[in-house]
Amino acid sequence: RIFIMKLQHILLKVNVVKILGDKNKEITNINFNSKKITKNGLFVAIRGLVADGHDYIDNSIKSGASVIFAEILPKKIHKDITYVCVKNTHRSLSQLASIFYNYPSKSIRLIGVTGTNGKTTIVSLLHQLFSLLNRKSGMISTIENKIIDKVIPSTHTTPDPLQINSLLSKMVDAECEYCFMEVSSHALHQERVADLSFDGGVFTNITNDHLDYHTTFSEYRDVKKSFFDSLSAETFALVNKDDKNSTKMLETTKAKKITYALKSMADFNCKVIEGHFDGMLLMINNFSVWVKLIGDFNAYNLLSVYAVAKLYRFADSDILTALSMLDSAEGRLQFLKNQNSIIGIVDYAHTEDALKNALITIKNLKTNSQKLVTIIGCGGNRDKSKRPFMTKVACQYSSVVILTSDNPRFEDPDLIISDMLSDLNANQKEKVLSINNRKQAIMTAGKLVTKDDIIFLAGKGHEKYQEIKGKKLPFDDVIELKKSLNII
Length: 488
Description:
Layout (H helix, E strand, L loop, with lengths): L4 E2 H5 L6 E3 L5 E2 L1 E3 L9 E4 L12 H7 L1 E6 L11 E4 L3 H12 L8 E6 L4 H14 L4 E4 L3 E4 L2 E4 L7 H13 L4 E5 L2 H5 L10 E4 L7 H4 L2 H13 L6 E5 L5 H5 L5 E6 L6 E9 L2 E6 L2 E5 L4 H16 L4 H8 L10 E4 L5 E5 L4 H14 L6 E5 L10 H11 L2 E4 L9 H9 L4 H5 L1 E3 L3 H11 L5 E5 L6 E4 L2 E4 L2 H8 L4
Parallel strand pairs: 4-5, 5-6, 6-7, 8-12, 8-13, 9-12, 13-14, 14-15, 15-16, 20-24, 21-22, 21-24, 22-23
Antiparallel strand pairs: 1-3, 2-7, 9-10, 10-11, 16-17, 17-18, 19-20, 25-26
Helix pairs in contact: 3-5, 4-10, 10-11, 12-13, 13-14, 16-17
């Protein structure tokens, strides 16, 4: 579908401070990247963390922009260009995207999933479940975006407003009834989802993360809370009651308040009856079901998925049958096994809480004779405070810990590892090896294990690259671990 819109129509629906120039123009494209603007385009000058779009207004005009949205109008004014001054271009971009694509979020049941851990898994499980329930649906996630079964590569946990609305518009065209979407704290803070009509929201949990961006935990928590504050009375807010911040999330929401839990009484309850490396038996609201996922955190994920399906009035028998068929998201406790019964596990865990949950799950399933070798790193140019805690958690549950590079970005990998080693006692230090080359670290782990032992490779999960000095170099944890275990 080709979208064309009159500027006058757009201006009626956007909060404007001042307009200079002709209002009677046709807009054929909108962008905040001056290189992607084409003829008759509308350029939105966004202030980013690295660059300021206001510096690229002239470039956008050279590319074909005929309308400029900015917080500060440039000194140099072109007589054939229309300039629109607004208070907040982040907010305006969200408004413009919804208007331009004809408000697609109003034509689909959009469910947002937010929290520190579990977002990707829940969105993936919901998409699988509703597909098994014969409902056309889409998903927007860290790993990939999907329109029914068509895969569209993903670049961010939550894309920019133009990408979101374009995807939603395509889902509406494909007659999708539902869309399941990860809602990150960055996206909420940058108002990327500000003008979307959500049908409901899911809260997983909240732990220390992204404190390089939000600076304080309370700010991070309040940004998450803002999502539930924005929900209308016709929607639902489904929260994990076992997380102490769940009451905060519901404090001022107008949405219908619904809870799920493993440890306390809630609207939806679950209990893990037994667990193995190939799955677990759950009791969900007095129904027993065998599932292919493992770990208490996945019991929470599956319970939230069951709850969403129940809120849309699907039958228990249909939901439970579908639950038993669900697979984990790529790079989330992804299992490998070689001819010597050595188990390899790849996981995206990159926070202290996610790492601890994964390691506790493995510890509860393994025998005392099985050695557990854990490989971890920490990303560069991100929250440094978590680094020593990540190593301590790994030491607590592992026989051997190999510290290596994750995505060092613009930091020195050896200095990141030094931070990770900074607060260990003598006993913990004895467990630790430092090998900054990730490929070499994974190969070394393969030499340290024998029959029935376990290698847990954390931090990157589904990612197919390593980010080093501004470049994304090809790197796949699953492939490297298979090589280490002689599976390929």
